[in-house]
Amino acid sequence: MTPILEIRDLCKTYGRLQALRGVTFELPGPGIYGFLGPNGAGKTTTIKLIAGLLKPTAGTIRICGMDLLADPVSALRQIGVMMETPQFYPHLSGRGNLRVLARLSGCRDETMIDSFLERVGLSSKSAERVSTYSRGMRQRLGVAAAVLGQPRLVILDEPANGLDPAGIVEMRDWLREMTSQEERTVLISSHQMGEMERICDVVTIIQKGAIVATGRPEDLVRNKNSITVRTRAPQAAVETLRRVQGIDKIEVVSADQVRVKTESLSSGEINRVLVLGGVEVIAIAKEKESLEDVFFRLIGDSRDVA
Amino acid sequence: MWRDACRVMSTEWLKLRRSRATATGLVVYVAVLGVLYAVYAIASLRSFAGIRSGFYVAGAVLSTATTPLAFVAAMLVTFSIGREFSQGTIHNVWARPLTRQGWLLGKTISAASHLAVFGLLTLVLVIVAAGIQLGFSDLMEKDFLIHTGAALWGHLALTVCLTWLALSAVVVFAAVPALSIGSPGGAFAVSLIAGFICQLLDGWDPIKPFLISTYLSLPLDQFVAMSKGLPLPQAWGTLLTTCLFGLAAWIAVGWLWAWVLVRRKEVLN
Q1: Which of B12, B92, B260, B269 to probe by mutation at the A interface, max A CB count within 10 Å?
Q2: pLDDT tens digit string along B67-105?
Q3: Nearest CA to CA, how far is B263 from chain A (Å)?
Q4: What is the Cα Rg of chain A in Å?
């Protein structure tokens, strides 16, 4: 099956600055893909290259099998892009802006504009000038503008910026609906790790213009070799566990929590030891990295701008 | 490319329709025109009392109006293109499935059409006002027919067409700084400086025939001379040929330059 997006050895230089160094990744089919990286890592440059706003120094970009450089119009027909902080014509209304963009996208059916406005929660404000919109409202309009031409690939750069918590949940639901019911592929660039971990099927991490990891969030996270025990008697738990071999470190982290560092013992074994020692265990769980931990592990300490 | 240009033109119309600046611009322009007309009408009655021809006033006002129209031409296109970059809306536009050449063509044709509205407005107002005040009869002196009214109307139509073509060349050329600089103010300033240099060089005979300012002023100057009953320094055929070939060259060079720029342009910010 032809991948929705296929990027091979993509390079981009600005004078002496090498912004992208042989970026290669692909989005095989419908799903939500995350694109993570620190500031200046090359996320926006990659998105701009996919959107045809920049010319690559080397490498290829194929969208639904179509070469972006050889046939940009056909390739761009398959994608909808929302850049970070989307900009609109301030003197036009939200609906007016979508009408302009729908015409540019070649959409003959302008009736769908109202359904998109309703979907992003802007129906009641659609006749107002965009200059009166808040940042969150512009962001919502930006997402509506990105999906106007019914593209197969939707690229959103920081879509949750400026959205309130309810807006973030609505956006998440809509993105899921887009992939499950409409079979679209969504590529999201964001710094909101928790949100990305919750929503993305696959994440790609970029640093200093090169891809450092790609995979499902659950595959990227590692076990921390720590087990957290919730108990009403943390001191008794510490005393019991001190007699067990294979435990590297025990620490009381709160009034009802003990953290056990071990490479050889499972949570079940720790639980058995505690119960046999007469310690009541409320909960026990093996600690795992969050996506944020993975991110910092992969990008290391060098968080400076590439 | 033409289909893309049509799409861009329809969106430009949507944007213009909703802009207060469109109506304000037309009102300001009509006010300037009214002042110009009054000056020429009074001058015509006093200085050229023997002529008293609506043709002269119409020609003189149109000729002078060409300069503000050249400003309007540069302003329309530099603001239309430059503002897309300065506002950041270009991200939304160039990431859509349309050719950049089609986008540029749509923008320039829209600006030229918008300019034509200004030109048409000028023509209609001047013709109606001059007709009411002085009339458009044959040009006679001491019972001798100098030019017939029909001939003068024909020449007026020709000069208006040629002037509009020359102004279209200004539109195409103003797209070049707009694409290079990506800021409406900066691009307009560069266009003004270029126009000023052209005006300065206009006095230097060896290069005068190659300057756009020549093509802007020549047809209407000829018409004004004719409507004053003066003999024409150039035959109309020669004038037409020079203007058409010169304008074709100007428009082709300007378009080629803008075409190369728009293909290579990257949206960095």
Answers
A1: B92
A2: 888 888 999 899 999 999 998 899 989 999 999 999 999
A3: 10
A4: 24
